[in-house]
Design brief:
alpha+beta; Jelly Rolls; globular; 803 residues
């Protein structure tokens, strides 16, 4: 699966986009530069997938129609394709830059050596894109049959049923479906591929600045991997990542306007398709960047029309052709224009900053940010170095702007100037969330200007001074970005592969048997359990009937907070394996269990409990609660109590912490290398299971009495409020006191070594403890039989005790 998603899938995506680009090139008269083939093809496939999913009965054919378009492009554009193949050596530096951009963007996954994605615990929006890409390619833009009583249906409807832009999602879903790949593992390669596709237009713009060969390739690489762009790619911000190559492509089409603006009307098709692709991927908000390119072209046309009156009619025809193409290619957006405008307005005006603790700094536009997180300001020496590198980039951008003006490349100068103006204007009109997106999309343009400074230095009179100074500036610009990206790579939290593969097997096994109640906080589970009509009480969109089961978004789920009758519509409950978790009601029995999850099924004919009471305190206090419940019975009924499991807790929160470690609520934060010691006592000798709870991305080692028992790493639950448990570790222990050691080793180059390292608790249970728990039954009249034990809860159930 790793090779299929990380290596094969991007190749297939590139083949599809190149074929579509060749088809557009043939349709528009064969003028497209080689560097724009992939990005224009990407826009064409976005438009195609939007149209096929708009006609919902045609949606399942989307992957095959994309393939048909690509094959048609290779056949009809075979002459151009042969020319490209014969001259591939001339573009070798650009190809190398694209491959390097892909490797950098996918570095956390590539170096982890397993399928995963890096937006984990950072932003749950990628969960929405996964279920959206899958749903749209299977069902199209038809939301009438969704079950809005559960989370899955609510998410789909709240996003895609209200005009939310889905162009990137339909391209993603359609292309990955050709290989029948799990979207959850193809998501990061798709984002990385989009970043690599952006190298083409970036390379063309760098050449227009005056760079050639390897210099242009290095500049293109620098343009597509500034720190903020890299951060958004790691976050899985697929809409913005898809929009970036299209924005750069618009700039290229502005720069090469002489090749198409005075030609046949069909030559306007690529420009219109790129506009349509951008609108489909980013929504009407893309209009700001489309307007920039359109204004520059309008200025060029106005100048030409003043000089040549005979161009009026051809210009009108060309404009009409572009408008018709734009109208058709982005029809799904125009048909629900009010919804799209409303989404753009909500994003622009929202007071919710999402995962941003504070507004981003304007200086981040220069591509350097020597901190692990783009959301937080670097500290200490890293801040000083960041400011120094920003100052260099600022000076280089100023010199680059002067260079562009001196070259009299008016179209390029106009596009760059209006792009910067659009950034300043849009930033003033939107709130924190929208301003951050605008800053990210502007960063490549500013970095491009800074490389104009490299061109200016290369033009200095003395050759050795020109080469050395230009090389030093190029190294500073690109080196600062790579260092910034490396720091983000170091703290990336990768999604737990084994846990999601287990969820996938669960989803296939029980497909169609929902609705399913999911008690763990993990919105990515909606993709793996997409055929179970999942409801999560602690999700953004909880089932209305069960919202009270959690205190709010991300809070622990407690089924005792809802009436037993509210659970009746859920034949399945999926829980995370946790020795301290409360067992589901007696109407459910355990039918499936693996390392991470348990599935509970409502028994046939089992009605809801008449009452469900959590028990607390000593056995005597629990006995009084059981008596009160028994005396409240008004008809034949029985009592069912769930016995509390035997737990041994290691006193981690009270252990002495090594230097540099801290506390977060009751948990221990293992910020740097160190070793923690704690003691515990087991009452009996035998086999025990050790449960480690926390958010632990880097590998830590566990030892008992000096004997290493396991390494734990990459165990993340996606929620800092509810700590998940790693799979249990079996150990054989004697009765009495034991010493446990938790060790975090020194700095590692592995992905996520600087990621979350929070240890919440370590528990032990006897290996003989039943997985489904132990239920005890008693007639109401014989409630005293339950006294003397320790229980989690007791239920009053209609009917008599079975013999």
């Amino acid at each position: 699966m790793f090779l299929a998603t990380a290596l094969l899938y991007p190749c297939v995506l590139v083949v599809l986009c190149l074929g579509a680009g060749l088809l557009v090139d043939r349709a528009s008269g064969g003028f497209l530069p080689v560097a724009l083939m992939l990005s224009v093809g990407t826009a064409a496939l976005i438009s195609l997938s939007q149209l096929t999913t708009y006609v919902h009965w045609l949606a399942p054919a989307t992957p095959y129609l994309m393939l048909a378009v690509a094959l048609a492009g290779y056949w009809l554009g075979r002459t151009r394709a042969r020319e490209l193949l014969a001259r591939v050596h001339a573009h070798a530096p650009a190809v190398a830059a694209a491959l390097l951009a892909y490797a950098l963007a996918l570095a956390p996954v590539l170096l982890a050596g397993r399928p995963s994605f890096s937006s984990y615990m950072a932003l749950a929006d990628s969960a929405v894109h996964l279920i959206g890409a899958d749903y749209l390619v299977r069902h199209g833009q038809d939301y009438a049959h969704l079950d809005l009583r559960n989370s899955y249906g609510q998410f789909i409807h709240a996003y895609y049923g209200t005009g939310y832009p889905s162009g990137a999602d339909t391209l993603f879903g359609g292309s990955a479906a050709l290989l029948r790949l799990p979207l959850i593992w193809a998501f990061q390669p798709f984002n990385a591929s989009l970043l690599a596709i952006a190298v083409g237009p970036a390379w063309l713009l760098a050449r227009r600045l005056g760079l050639e060969g390897a210099w242009a390739a290095l500049a293109a690489l620098s343009v597509v991997v500034p720190a903020l762009v890299y951060a958004y790619e790691l976050l899985g911000s697929v809409k913005e990542v898809a929009a970036m190559p299209l924005i750069l492509t618009l700039g290229c089409l502005v720069v090469v306007h002489r090749d198409w603006l005075r030609g046949p009307p069909t030559r306007a098709v690529p420009f219109a398709l790129v506009l349509a692709g951008g609108v489909s991927a980013l929504g009407t908000a893309f209009g700001a960047w489309g307007l920039v390119a359109t204004l520059v072209l309008a200025a060029v046309l106005t100048r030409d029309l003043r000089a040549h009156r005979d161009l009026v009619r051809p210009t009108v025809v060309l404009t009409c052709c572009a408008a018709a193409t734009l109208l058709l290619a982005a029809w799904p957006t125009w048909s629900d224009l009010s919804g799209s405008l409303n989404v753009a307005q909500n994003i622009a005006a929202t007071a919710n900053p999402g995962n941003l603790h504070s507004p981003l700094r304007a200086i981040q536009v220069f591509g350097v940010w020597l901190g692990g997180s783009y959301k937080l300001e670097p500290t200490g020496a890293a801040l000083d170095v960041t400011h120094a590198l920003v100052a260099v980039a600022l000076l280089a951008a100023v010199v680059g702007a002067v260079h562009v003006l001196r070259r009299r490349t008016h179209a390029l100068a106009g596009w760059l100037a209006l792009m910067l103006l659009a950034w300043l204007v849009v930033t003033q009109l939107v709130t924190t969330w929208g301003a951050a997106k605008t800053l990210m999309l502007t960063s490549p343009v500013v970095v491009l200007l800074a490389w104009g400074g490299v061109v200016a230095l290369r033009a200095l009179p003395r050759r050795w001074v020109a080469v050395s100074s230009a090389s030093l500036l190029a190294l500073t610009l690109l080196g600062g970005e790579i260092a910034s990206d490396a720091m983000q790579y170091h703290v990336a939290n990768l999604a737990p592969t084994a846990r999601y593969e287990e969820l996938a097997s669960l989803g296939k096994r029980f497909a169609g048997q929902g609705p399913t109640l999911f008690t763990d906080f993990d919105e990515w589970s909606m993709y793996e359990l997409r055929n179970l009509d999942e409801g999560g009480p602690d999700f953004v969109y909880p089932p209305a009937a069960l919202a009270a089961a959690a205190g709010g978004y991300g809070d622990p789920v407690d089924l005792a907070r809802v009436s037993p009758a509210a659970l009746r519509s859920y034949p399945l409950i999926v829980t995370r394996r946790d020795p301290a978790a409360t067992r589901p009601p007696a109407a459910y029995r355990l039918v499936w269990q693996r390392s991470y999850y348990q599935v509970w099924r409502r028994m046939p004919g089992a009605g809801p409990a008449l009452a469900h009471v959590l028990l607390h305190g000593t056995s005597r206090a629990q006995c009084r609660q059981i008596r009160r419940l028994a005396r409240a019975a008004r008809r034949p009924a029985r009592l069912v109590a769930a016995r509390s499991p035997e737990l041994v807790s290691v006193h981690v929160p009270f252990a002495a912490l090594p230097a540099g470690w801290g506390r977060q609520r009751a948990a221990v934060v293992m910020k740097r290398p160190g070793r923690l010691y704690a003691t515990f006592r087991v009452p009996t000798a035998g086999n025990w299971e050790v449960w480690v709870k926390g958010q632990i991305m880097p590998t830590v080692e566990l030892s008992i009495d000096g004997r290493r028992v396991a390494s734990v790493g990459g165990q993340l639950g996606g929620n800092s409020l509810v700590m998940g448990s790693a799979p249990p570790i079996s150990v054989s222990l004697t009765a009495g006191v034991h010493r446990l050691t938790v060790t975090r080793r020194g700095f590692q180059l592995t992905p996520g070594d600087g990621g979350s390292a929070v240890l919440d608790a370590i528990l032990l249970t006897p290996a003989s403890e039943p997985s489904g728990g132990v239920l005890r039954h008693a007639a109401v009249s014989r409630w005293r039989r339950l006294c003397g034990g320790s229980y989690e809860w007791v239920e009053l159930i209609a009917g008599r005790v079975r013999a």
